[in-house]
Amino acid sequence: MTELLSKETFLEKVFNFEKNKEWKFEGDLPCIIDFYADWCGPCKMVAPILEELSNEYKGKVNIYKVDTEAEQELAAAFGIRSIPSILFVPKDTEPQMAQGALPKHQLEQIIKDVLKA
């Protein structure tokens, strides 16, 4: 199941940008972070796909959601200008951002190529 992150849980589980200037991933598993808003149509299309992927990749990839309305500071820290924006965070390399409602096959390809899961 996807997990909703607050700024506090984001700092703990993904990246403490208040403490570190350089990227330093805090998690145990690669993750996907969906920056969304409740009113966003394309976000609603991506949500069930991410739920499916969270079940299919359970124990391999964590899937998180960040509500850009509630967590404006987080959205600003990542320069989120349009939603959905999806951040792919591998364990050992820099994260990569994708924008827009991506189809499932494309998300699976990114999980394979970027997250190595």
From TrEMBL:
Keywords: Disulfide bond, Electron transport, Redox-active center, Transport. GO terms for cellular component: cytoplasm. GO terms for molecular function: protein-disulfide reductase activity. Residues 8-116 form the Thioredoxin domain. It holds the Pfam family Thioredoxin. The keyword Disulfide bond applies. PANTHER family: GEO12009P1 (PTHR45663). Belongs to the thioredoxin family. NCBIfam families: thioredoxin. This is Thioredoxin.
